[in-house]
Amino acid sequence: MAIKFDYSADTSTDAVASVADSIRSTHRLAPLTEEQKLQRRVEMEAFREEQAWQAEERKAERDRLEAQRAEAERAEAAIALAKANKKRRLELQERERERQRGRQITELHFRARQSELWQSNVDAAARHAVAVRQQQALLADVERHLTPPAPPPEPEVIYVEAVEGSDQLGTSDFNPKLWMQKPRSWW
After folding, report:
1. Residue ranges in 5-33 assigned as alpha helix (H)
2. What is the pLDDT of residue 185?
3. Backbone dihedral angles phi then psi of residue 174, each to the nearest 5 degrees
4. How many other β-carbons are positioned within 10 Å of the β-carbon of residue 187?
5. What pLDDT, on a 0 to 100 scale, did the predictor assign at position 180?
6. Structural domains in the chain (count)
7. Considering the domain boundaries, does residue 128 fall inside one?
8. pLDDT tens-digit profile of 60-85?
């Protein structure tokens, strides 16, 4: 089983020095001078700073990716909401069209029934008129058979006044009545 070393953890200076002393004694290396130690500390500090900077960069990249993912999720949610709203709107429009069709059909049924009632009333009135005419004709026929015929009218005597004479002015039998009846073309 391999032991994993946490490179990002802070290690105490004494532990690092003891490990370095152990490695030097095993490999017979010369001890480090103060300048080399200072150089190593600077390198370690630079390494830690670079590791911290890389960690910050990775965190910033993760945050950016997370923000992009969140934005993409919001966009997908907005698209899904728009689709759902459109679907609901279309369903509402379809239901409204169905209600309008239902109202139109109901109105047509009502008008058809009204027309049927009107037609039946007209038919009943026509039947009644025919029955009344037949009844009146029958009563007239019965009355004609039961009532004796009227006597013929008496002749009217017209007396016409005999007009004698002439309509010519200056004749001996001149009649002014005849002269007044004559049409005048010279007037």
Report:
1. 13-27
2. 62
3. -60, 130
4. 4
5. 75
6. 1
7. yes
8. 999 999 999 999 999 999 999 999 99
